[in-house]
């Protein structure tokens, strides 16, 4: 059923904030660091509950990554918090050497990812982070889609040993994945079964894909809809099984097409099950200032773009 | 260990260094030789550490972080000679399938190494995190770090310097190898460091000086540094050394930063360094 029950809306970063507090209650070794963005990252509740386990770093993200790596030595589980841009591009070498190569149990938690950061513009709208982080050996990359899934993912990564990149966002989006869910790292969520086309979506684009699938089914096109919340390790089995069934694929993400989810799925399918694919994402471009809705429309990340991509790939499938 | 025993150990470590880089015709002898006395004092006299039961967390023991990872030869020698792994393994330095990578790493599981280093400027932040972890664990042990002076040109060092003072990380003793040399020439010419004492004091650190190639000075200064811990401020030692110390034709020049000696140069160097513990 594509009839997901929507229980209001909230931002995924608030899901992170609640998940962090929960993880902190469950495990006294969970600690948190923030680079002058406590409110934006919704880390206030953790700070209030566990002030001695919270480290304000100031506007110094490179140092934050290093300190987090050091805190793991002695058994702590550090969660770093800043915007996605400053969590990745700004500190890539620190993450590469001190965290990924050194196999440190650091959770890099990144808010305001993608275009939906909005008015601050392209300097802050990173659209390359999934690619950068997925390229790092030893890194797990997770991009949840709503408040509940982000909360569950935050709790799950505290129990997973190894470096993790957790990507979430700024705007309020519909809540439809359900409270008290169990988040399984690396296991795609098969949201809906269909036969004509597969849609693989991540993050904020999952809801756009749900809306697109509803419209398509009204036209008699059934969609195999899969939520790829864990981009690395990719659930190749789920991707291949779906593509084999439908023979046509659309990917959808709030990220550059180059190097993002679409690239990784194309790579997997070209090896295991060559299938026509269309990509919904940002096409080799920087963002700009605007409201999240205006930006998603201008850069082609709406449900109508997914619908158009589906129709295009179905023509290729039948050719 | 007495001062003369430490000096004898340092002579063997210097032999190990030149033999290691010669054997693979690569590596960094200059800074390694300059920091040998400090490293020997640290591992054979100053630190409370447990080579035999090495583990990543290092609870209840002092920790050391090498931020200028290119001087791996001196660290590997000191680790081996103090019992972290067999000295014979030094012969694998920089060779395929070795645990003794060109720059230190945890990746191959070499005992004694707790983070990868090589890309400069990152070790201070990591050491600060480890020092804060000790505080969270009510562990009274100390954390030591070593940095090159050229490395201070990296911005992250100063982010870390500010952070350590702000958070009163006073279980940390950092040392800068002030040899005045970097790859492209003297630091004064490449990118002058200015008044290092004034800089670190302005950042809120306690600063003391050390003659890094005088074993007596090294030991007494490190002992003094321990007494400065627990007073609300991190400790910085400005250690003056001569790059290439112990091998006359390598001394005081950046030329031997990352160059290995040939057969004749190796023989000449070994002639100046007494074999005290037996070559590996």
Blueprint (SSEs and pairs):
The complex is a heterodimer of chains A (319) and B (280).
Chain A (H helix, E strand, L loop, with lengths): L8 E3 H15 L3 E5 L3 H4 L2 H6 L4 E3 L4 H11 L5 E7 H4 L4 H9 L6 E5 L17 H7 L4 E3 L4 H12 L5 E4 L4 E3 L14 E4 L4 E5 L3 H14 L4 E5 L2 E3 L3 H11 L2 E8 L4 H12 L4 E6 L9 H7 L4 H16 L1
Parallel strand pairs in A: 2-3, 2-4, 4-5, 5-7, 6-7, 10-11, 10-13, 13-14
Antiparallel strand pairs in A: 1-8, 6-12, 9-11
Chain B lengths: L2 H22 L4 H6 L1 H11 L16 E4 L5 H10 L41 H14 L6 E6 L6 H12 L5 E7 L2 E2 L2 E2 H5 L4 H7 L3 E6 L3 H13 L7 E6 L22 H8 L10
Parallel strand pairs in B: 1-2, 2-3, 3-7, 6-7
Antiparallel strand pairs in B: 4-5
Query: What's the Cα radius of gyration of chain A?
Result: 19 Å
Could you name the CATH homologous superfamily of the largest domain in chain A? Thiamin diphosphate (ThDP)-binding fold, Pyr/PP domains
Distance between the ends of chain A: 30 Å
Counting helices, strands and paired strands, the structural category of chain A is alpha/beta
Quickly name the level 1 CATH class of the largest domain in chain A: Alpha Beta
Class based on secondary structure composition and strand pairing of chain B: alpha/beta
Tell me what the CATH architecture of the largest domain in chain A is: 3-Layer(aba) Sandwich
Largest sheet of chain A, if any? 7 strands, mixed
The amount of beta strand of chain A, in percent, is 15-25%
